[in-house]
Every structure is written in structure tokens, then in C-alpha cells.
Amino acid sequence: MNRREFNLNLLFAVPALTLLVPQAQPQLRVNGQRLNARLSELAQYGKTPEGGTHRLAYTDADLEARQYAMKLMREAQLEVTIDAAGNIAGQRVGSNTQLKPLMIGSHIDSVPAGGSYDGQVGSMGAIEVAQILAENKVRLRHPLEVVIFQNEEGGTIGSTAIARGLTEKDLSIVTNSKKTIREGIKFIGGDPDKLASAVRKKGDLAGYLELHIEQGGTLHQEKINIGVVEGIVGVFWWEVTIEGFANHAGTTPMNQRRDALLAAAKYIDAVNRIVTSVPGRQVGTVGRIQALPGAFNIVPGKVTTTLGLRDLDAAKVQMLFEKIQSEVRRIEAATGTKFDFKQVNASQPAPTDERFRRVINDAAKQLGLTTKLLPSGAGHDAQEIAHLSPVGMIFVPSRDGISHSPREFSEPADITNGANVLLHTLLKLDGMSLN
Amino acid sequence: MNRREFNLNLLFAVPALTLLVPQAQPQLRVNGQRLNARLSELAQYGKTPEGGTHRLAYTDADLEARQYAMKLMREAQLEVTIDAAGNIAGQRVGSNTQLKPLMIGSHIDSVPAGGSYDGQVGSMGAIEVAQILAENKVRLRHPLEVVIFQNEEGGTIGSTAIARGLTEKDLSIVTNSKKTIREGIKFIGGDPDKLASAVRKKGDLAGYLELHIEQGGTLHQEKINIGVVEGIVGVFWWEVTIEGFANHAGTTPMNQRRDALLAAAKYIDAVNRIVTSVPGRQVGTVGRIQALPGAFNIVPGKVTTTLGLRDLDAAKVQMLFEKIQSEVRRIEAATGTKFDFKQVNASQPAPTDERFRRVINDAAKQLGLTTKLLPSGAGHDAQEIAHLSPVGMIFVPSRDGISHSPREFSEPADITNGANVLLHTLLKLDGMSLN
Q: What is the nearest CA distance from A293 to chain B, expressed in angstroms?
């Protein structure tokens, strides 16, 4: 027992002073060595030859990693349950029974051939925070809930199940594991027939905090310790079909062609030009393309491709989409083709809570860390939980901005910093009146 | 027996007058009704629900169509053999044993889900010409050889076997029929172990004439009866690989991307711009593309695509390729990507013989038909036979320039015109000193 723990015990002997607890822990720190060692252990489940992690939701590797996480949660003196949707919850009662829980956590499933940091950092970080509180006998006013959301990479399935409920259509989606979501939920110990019991109501939570790697390169490049997330950008996807006319590539003069791939090329270039023509951090991506019939000697008659736009401001996305549409009209006229856009995804921007951002920033500054306000370009479970309660997100640097790759890497010291910011943000929020 | 045939018989009774024969047949005409009826019958082999023809080389449909063609050849009093390479030859002796054969013909295999005109018109046209000569008891000075080349659509395989020989590598190619070329040759009655016997030497032929549909839209659009082919364009193909860097489409700012698909778009647009920037009938096509990994949420890290350039002048193709390379250097610098071009086809331009062109034009004019000199943008067996002897090609209009499609169509009257031009060109050439 060190001096700090001794002091804490003294404080806990005086229940009337619980309100002072958050103020009284400025020296409390997570065990960074333990946290990083656990990340290495976790990375054994689904380890790839390339040194990354292939741990698709609903596979054996996922199941084993979940068992490992539950073991750690019990070590952190959390009461562990699996909800009907298959999310793992580790709970610890608070000192004020009137208050709603503060939730912290992330996910441990990975993309195919992914990395070993992504949601793992926030998951192990949340368990470490719970464990350090338990070891130091710090009881929060609010109940604490550490959550490991299931199948984040397949479309924030676990957090959606809590925040909005899953539809029958969702349940029938065949995931990368080859199991449907329904089968997957059963596989990991949930009960797809009782999903209603997993859904929470607005106001059921006092707040949610998620620690995560940035996945982009801003913090690493600018040598900043902590990203304070402004919000999770809206993600808008369209399937794009371009109809031209397939013809012989040798016998059809250039001026008689209706080349769908030439139209696609002009479109892809236009998307880039339009998205970068206005200030801001919006992104636009064409990620997939196929030309049909797709042969050396045939002028492509049809192209299927995509459009993805993301920004914190949905109105800006709409403005960019309209500019792209005007340009597409010009391309159609110039190439004798016809474009069709079918929207297949429209997840709205999820701003983080302004108070949470301020508290994260204060906590980081008090730890002597540099901070930067930035959007999250990737989707996260936090965007779903934002339907229920205020949310905050803490980013740590990703080397070279690489993610969803075996080359994904965050420095152990940065991960420890992030967990300490999570810890102190939690303590500060716990002392506030959240509603 | 009509009056014309009577006169011919009179002429043949006077062997010393054989040199006059070609001049003496100005009224001779093919039987257009029979020719077009046979095209319809031929189209039954491999007929598709869309009304086109799916008759891949080395399939049952191909074998049955070949048997049908051989039956017609025998009706035309040709002596039918299959060479070691699987080509069908129908021969008729000439009156002058010192002369080398004049060859006419084409192919009857089709592309997948193709049309019913393509090589079929020239094949049935050549048999019709032989039959009308036989029926009218016109014996040429030169031996006549009607040839049906095997597997033209798979890369002028039969004509290459005659003109240059097939390599072991050629023989091991797996064709659309799922058979290798070796297996295919055996299947259609050739002998892949005796291919050397099929190879002809330069000078073994007096000349080759091929009737074909244009496959482009020039004759149809300009309402011209007969195309006099200047030559078969050189066909140059490259596999193009573009390396960028795959990254998260949400978290990677626009200015930090190395987007291989954006680079590909600029490249495709540049190919079109460069190819159309100089006068002439050259064409440039990008027909195939794949972006990897190919997902909505990943900036493409790699693209595989193609380049095809065709022209009658190989030096012009080289000049265009160099312009494209310069532009590619600029695109690489602007997008942080790296292009690689691997040439996978370089069939050199095959000009037709100047005398043959003149004779085709004269024959058409004497038949009261309009003509236009034009290149063949598609490859043909004639380009291979050009290695052995002078060649000529006669085009008839393709409706809307559509080919390799069930919508491929040529008017029966145009087909009859083409066969009459073939007949009279043959007769004129037969009267000339070819060497």
C-alpha cells in the first residue's frame, strides 16, 4: 500500500466527504505497465503472421478474447454479465443510489487482418481504470459500468442494440464470420429472442466515455498527446451506377463512344476536386469500382462505383453532394452516359457533449499533456450511445495514422496517458451534476 | 442452265482462252438468297435466347457448325480437309499448275454471347463464291482454297498456326471452352503433335481475301456499301498497376492520401485526352479496372487497370504511349502513387496489299457500289496471313456499328453485295500476275 492508497482509505472512512473524492485523487495513476501487457496478451487471440489481429466478431478468437476480458473485469472487482445483445457489462455500485451509471468502454472485435490497438486500447483502458479505482478503494458516486460492445466493426451492432434496438433485417445480415448477427449473438452468449431487454432508455445513463486510438495521423504528426473529440462525423454512402454503351474497342471511333469508365474517371476526379474546394476537415472517397464487361477490347458499357462523404456537419455533406450532382450532369452530357446514385448509408453526425470535452481537456492539462480538438472520421460505439446520454471521446496518437492494418501502432506511453485521462475525466465527471 | 452458264461452257471448251476468263464474267452473281439462308442456318448452332450466337471455339456448338460448313463446302465441289491445326480447308485445283493458291475465308467461332454475323458472313460468303464458280463451271487459273480458321476469337489461333506456328505456351492456354488450345485442336479433328505440317511458308499463297462485317459504324452511318480495308491496326495492350497506400476513408485527411483510384481516374481521363489530341483514327481504351481493397470505407491503396492503343501506324502508337507516360509521371507526383506498365500484347499493324485494295475498289465500282477506304480496328485472321502473302479485306456495313453482341446485324442485301465484291475481286486477281 503506497501513501496515496493510504490517504484514499482515510477518505473512504468519512462517507460524508464522498463529494470531495474526485478532487482528492490528483495523484492517482493507472498501472501503465499492466495495461500494455494486457494489450499484448489480448493480441494473442486471433494473432496473424503479419503481427496484427484477425478477430472477427462471432468467431472462436472473439469468444476467447471475451472470456479473457471477463476474467480481467472480475479481477477489477466488477460484477460481470452478458446482456441479451451479447455485450459484456462489468458493474460496480456507486455511493449515491439516486445517480445513473457512468459508462466507459469500447470493443475488442477487429476487422479482417486488422491491428491490435483500435478498440482494444479503450477496452483494456476502461478495465484498468476500474481496477485502479478498486485497488485504491475509490468508490464513485455514480454506478460504474465497463462495457465491451460486441461487433463494432460490423456496424456498431452491440451499441446499436442498446441505443436503438436491432431490427429483424439487422439480425439476418450475414457477417464476416459467416454467421448471421442472430446466430452470432447466440454464439457469444446473448439471447436474440430477448433483445428488448438490452435496449436502454434516454436518461438511463449519466454519460459515456470512450478511449480510442485516433486512426488518423494528426496527433502523431503534430506530436500531441491527447485528442479531444469534437464529435463523430456523419457517414453517408451511395452506390453509383453509370450506364454507357459497350462496344468494340478497336472499331468504335473515339467520338462515337459512350464510355462509362471515362465518365467514372471524370466523376472520381470531380469528387476529389469538389471535396477539397472548401475549407474544413470533410472527406470524400470513391473506394470501389467495377467496369463491365471489363475486357481489354471492349469500351466499358457500365460502371458500378461508390461515393462516401463524411463531416461533422450534415448540411455541409448535403452541399457537397449537390455540387457533385451538378458536375455529374455535365459529365453525363459530355460522355453520353447516365448516372444513378442510391444512398445505402446515412449515419448522422454525433457531436460529443461540450462539458465532457472541457473536462477531458482539463484532465489532460492537469496531467501535463498537450491536447487538440478534432473530429472522429471513423464511426464508434459512442455515436450510438450519444442517442442515450452525453458522450465524450479521448484519442491517443496512431503512428503514421495507420489503422485497420497489422501496421497499426500506438506507443505504450501514449496509451498510458490516454487511460490516465480517462481515469481523471471519469473522476471529474463523477463529481459533477450530470443530467 | 442459263445463258451465262452456256457461254462459260463454250469458253471452257477453248483452254487457250483461260486468260480471258476473269474478264468474261462481269454478269456473274452470287446467290444472295442462298447465302443469307445459310447464315440463318449456321446461327442455329449455339443460338442464344437473346437471338445471338454463343459458339466458343472447341465446344460442341463449334464442332456442329464446322460439320455444317464442311457439308456446304462439299456441295460447292471443294475437296475438304482439316489441317493439323484444326483449320478447315476446301480446295479446288486451278487451270495453271504453276500458280500458288488464292485463299478466301474467315472463321465461324464467336465470342461469348456474341452475334451471328462477324466471321460467319465471310465464311459463308467464301463458300458461296466457290459454289457459284463451280455451278457456273468457272475454273480459276490459280488453285482456290476456302478456309475456315479455327478459334479466331481466342487470338487468331488457326491463322497463326498457318502463318507463324503455335508455341508450347500458346497450346497450354486455357480457352473460354475450358479446354486448352492443345485439347481444343484435338477436339476439332486436328493433331497438336503434327502442327509443323500446318505451317505455310512465305510465297506458298498467291494472296488472301477476307470478307467481314465492319464491326464499326462508319459504313452504316455514311450509307456506304463497301469498305476497302487499308490494313488491320496494330493492337498494343498493357496491364497497368498503380500503387498508392490503403488507409481509413474516415480518418485520413484529403491532403494525406495516396489514393490509387484518384490516380487511376486522372490516368483514364488523360488517355482519352491524349488519344483524341492528334488527328487520325487511332483509338485508346481503358477497359478494365479494379480498386483494392475495394470498400466504401478504405482509400484504395492499389488499382489494376489496362491500356489498349490501336493504329495502322506503330510509330504513332509509340508516340501516344510516350505522351501518356509523361502525363503519368505528373499524376504520380500529384497523387503520391507509382504506376507500372507491363506490355501483354503487341500485334503489329498489317497493311493490306495496295493492288488488292485497288482491285476490290474496281470490282465494287463495276457492281455499282459505293466504297470507302478505312482501317480495320479489330484484329482478323488476315493480319496473320499477311505474314505469308498479300492480303485484302472487304467490309460490309454493321448496323449502328454494334458487334460482338446479339444486336450485331448486317442487311442481307449488304451481305450479298460483299460476296459479289469478293467474287469479282477474286476473278480479277486470278487474271493478274501475282507474286
A: 8
Would you say how long chain A is, in residues? Answer: 435
In whole angstroms, give the CA distance from residue A51 to residue A415.
Answer: 19
Q: Is A377's CB within 8 Å of B261's CB?
A: no
Half-sphere exposure of B230 (CA within 13 A, CB side): 12
Segment B170-210, tens digit of pLDDT? 999 999 999 999 999 999 999 999 999 999 999 999 999 99
Q: Does B262 touch chain A (CB under 8 A)?
A: yes
**B interface mutation test: which of A271, A285, A403 has the most B CBs within 10 A?**
A285
The C-alpha atoms of residue B94 and residue B140 are separated, in whole angstroms, by 5
Residues 298-317 of A with CB under 8 A from B: 298-300, 306, 308, 310
Who's near B405: CB < 8 A, 6+ residues apart? A246, B52, B113, B114, B115
Whether the CB-CB separation of A327 and A268 falls below 8 Å is answered with no
**Which domains are present in chain A?**
3-233+349-430 (3.40.630.10), 234-347 (3.30.70.360)
Dmax over Cα atoms in chain B, in whole Å? Answer: 91
How far CA A308 is from CA of A95, A317, A341, A379, B402, in Å, comes to 46, 10, 11, 13, 36
**The pLDDT of residue B23 is above 90:** no
From start to end of B83-124, where are the E strands? 88-92, 102-107
CB atoms under 10 Å from CB of B366, counted, come to 13
Instruction: Find where cell 445463258 sits.
Output: B3
The burial of B304, by beta-carbon neighbours within 10 Å (0-12 exposed, 13-18 middle, 19 or more buried), is given as middle
Nearest CA in chain A to B286: A296
- Say whether the ipTM exceeds 0.85: no
pLDDT at A435: 67
**Neighboring chain B residues of A379 at a CB cutoff of 8 Å:** 250
**C-alpha cell of A315?**
448540411
pLDDT digits (tens, 9 = 90+) for A342-369: 998 888 999 999 999 999 999 999 999 9
Residues 369-388 of chain B whose Cβ lies under 8 A from any Cβ of chain A: 376-379
- Express as a percent the part of chain A with pLDDT over 70: 94
Q: How confident is the model at residue B24 (pLDDT cuts 50, 70, 90)?
A: low
Confidence at residue B206, expressed as pLDDT on a 0 to 100 scale: 97
